[in-house]
Amino acid sequence: MVGFKVGQKVVYPNHGIGTIEQIEQKQIGAIALPFYTLRLAATNSLVLVPVSNASEVGLRRPITSAECDTLFKALSGDFATLPTIGRIASRIFPTRCALAIFLKWPKC
Questions:
Q1: 29: left (phi over 0), alpha (psi -120 to 50) or beta
Q2: Whether the predicted model's global pTM rises above the 0.85 cut
Q3: CATH numbers and ranges of domains, the chain
Q4: Other C-beta atoms within 10 Å of 29: how many?
Q5: Which of the four pLDDT bands, split at 50, 70 and 90, describes residue 12?
């Protein structure tokens, strides 16, 4: 279980950064479920995320400044040229291959 607090900044994939404005109970049929109410920074819209599904939808804390520095350092280095099979695979699976190259996995 994730466990966010009111006022905490979060990242919601495909939506961006948001702030948890409240944690409230909503009645869904006969069941009362807790929801995070997020205010999205980009659109100022509200989004409800069930607390029980927060991990499954990818709701997470933003990276820290130190983690950001580490990421920038890793990404600023020289990139090796992909062999032909790697170039083809990168067109099919761009995210996975990018991650594989970054983590120095032997295959995409």
A1: left
A2: no
A3: 9-53 (2.40.10.170), 65-102 (no CATH)
A4: 6
A5: very high
